[in-house]
C-alpha cells in the first residue's frame, strides 16, 4: 500500500512538472509582441542661451500574461497579469554628448511586478533624433510564498524619419519627431534573455 502511494505521488509530480514545462515552452513561442503606444524625439537648436537637452521618450505595453515558473510551495503556476507598462521611458542628454552606454528607467505603474528600461544603442549608422535604435527591456518578477520568480525580455527596434517617424526640423535647427499616428500601437517582437 505504501509503495503504491509513493508511486502515485511521483507520477503526479512528474505529470505536473511536464505539463508546466510544456506550457512554459509553448508560451515562449506564442508571445504577442509588445506595443509601443507613444514615441517622440527632440533636439534643440544648439544656439547659445537656448535649451541644451535632447531626448527620446517612449511608452510601451506588454499584452501578455506571463508564467514565471511553478511554485515549489504548492505546484501552482506563478504568473503576472497582462498589461504591464513602461511609462515615460526617457533618455535625456546634453548637446555634444550621446545617450549610449546606459539604461534609462521607465516609470512603473507601481504594481510591484518588475520593471522596464530603455537603451539607445549605437548601431553604427548616423545617429540622430530622427535615426536611432532602441532596446526595451522588461524584467517580470513576482514574490510568491517567499520565493522570487523572474523572467527577462528584450526587444530591439530601429526608428527613422519617413519610415516609422513623422516630424520636422525647423530653420533654427530644432527637430521634433514622433511615431506616425497610423502606426500606433507599433508592434515590437520581444525575446527572452538569460
Describe this structure in words.
The protein is mainly beta and 194 residues long. It has one domain (31-193). The chain contains 1 helix and 13 strands, in the order H-E-E-E-E-E-E-E-E-E-E-E-E-E. It has one helix at residues 2-29, and strands at 34-43, 53-62, 66-70, 77-80, 84-94, 104-105, 114-121, 131-144, 147-160, 165-169, 175-179, 186-188, 191-193. Strands 1, 2, 5, 10, 11 and 12 form a 6-stranded antiparallel beta sheet that branches. Strands 6-7-8-9-13 form a 5-stranded antiparallel beta sheet, with no helix packed on it. Strands 3-4 form a two-stranded antiparallel ribbon. Strand 3 and strand 4 form a beta hairpin. The radius of gyration is 22 Å and the shape is elongated. Residues 1-26 have low confidence and may be disordered.
Amino acid at each position: 500500500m505504501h509503495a503504491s502511494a509513493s508511486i502515485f505521488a511521483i507520477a503526479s509530480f512528474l505529470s505536473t512538472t511536464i505539463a508546466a514545462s510544456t506550457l512554459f515552452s509553448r508560451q515562449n513561442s506564442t508571445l504577442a509582441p509588445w506595443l509601443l503606444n507613444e514615441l517622440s524625439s527632440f533636439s534643440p537648436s544648439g544656439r547659445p542661451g537656448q535649451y541644451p537637452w535632447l531626448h527620446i521618450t517612449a511608452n510601451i505595453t506588454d499584452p501578455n500574461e506571463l508564467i514565471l515558473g511553478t511554485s515549489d510551495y504548492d505546484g501552482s503556476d506563478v504568473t503576472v497579469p497582462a498589461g504591464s507598462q513602461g511609462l515615460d521611458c526617457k533618455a535625456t542628454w546634453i548637446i555634444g554628448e550621446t545617450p549610449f552606454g546606459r539604461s534609462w528607467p521607465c516609470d512603473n505603474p507601481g504594481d510591484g511586478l518588475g520593471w522596464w528600461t530603455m537603451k539607445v544603442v549605437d548601431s553604427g549608422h548616423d545617429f540622430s533624433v530622427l535615426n536611432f535604435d532602441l532596446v526595451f527591456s522588461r524584467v517580470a518578477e513576482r514574490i510568491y510564498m517567499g520565493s522570487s520568480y523572474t523572467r527577462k525580455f528584450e526587444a530591439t527596434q530601429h526608428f527613422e524619419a519617413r519610415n516609422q517617424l513623422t516630424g520636422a526640423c525647423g530653420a533654427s535647427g530644432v527637430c521634433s519627431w514622433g511615431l506616425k499616428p497610423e502606426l500606433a500601437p507599433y508592434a515590437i517582437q520581444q525575446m527572452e534573455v538569460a
